[in-house]
């Protein structure tokens, strides 16, 4: 008999992962990318959209979304604008 895995929110997962010292150090070194990834994931999940569906909306491959969400890329502003439009949201940029 299969058991259902526990479902947790991205915020809960982040809180749990940050308890690990090594993860926290790596996370903080990639904080800007981490913040972008978390916001994209949260917006995508809020709309019940898969990585594939989001990729299709921006005329890209699922790997592009996967790399962004797993912190394996540094997304361009143009990519973030496409993603924001596809998720019917906006980008708020702040320097300083």
How does this model look, in words?
InterPro entries: Cro/C1-type_HTH, Lambda_DNA-bd_dom_sf. Pfam families: HTH_3. The mean pLDDT is 91. α4 packs across α5. The protein has helices at 10-17, 21-29, 31-46, 51-57, 62-69, 77-86. It is an all-alpha fold and 96 residues long. The radius of gyration is 15 Å and the shape is globular.
How would you summarize what this structure contains?
The chain has 96 residues and is mostly helical. The protein has helices at residues 10-17, 21-29, 31-46, 51-57, 62-69, 77-86. This is HTH cro/C1-type domain-containing protein.
Structural descriptors:
mainly alpha, 434 Repressor (Amino-terminal Domain), 6 helices
Note the topology.
Layout: H1 10-17, H2 21-29, H3 31-46, H4 51-57, H5 62-69, H6 77-86
Helix pairs in contact: 4-5
Shape assignment? globular
Indicate the proportion of strand residues: under 5%
Percent in helix: 55-70%
Q: How would you name the CATH homologous superfamily?
A: lambda repressor-like DNA-binding domains
Count the domains.
1
Structural class: mainly alpha
Backbone CA Rg: 15 Å
Oligomer: single chain
């Amino acid at each position: 008999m299969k058991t259902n895995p526990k479902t947790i929110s991205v915020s809960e997962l982040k809180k749990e992962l940050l308890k690990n010292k090594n993860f926290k150090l790596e996370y903080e070194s990639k904080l800007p990318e981490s913040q972008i990834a978390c916001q994209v994931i949260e917006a995508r999940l809020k709309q019940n959209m898969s990585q594939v569906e989001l990729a299709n909306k921006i005329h890209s491959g699922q790997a592009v979304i996967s790399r962004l969400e797993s912190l394996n890329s540094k997304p361009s502003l143009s990519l973030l604008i496409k993603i924001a439009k596809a998720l019917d949201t906006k980008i708020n940029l702040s320097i300083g």
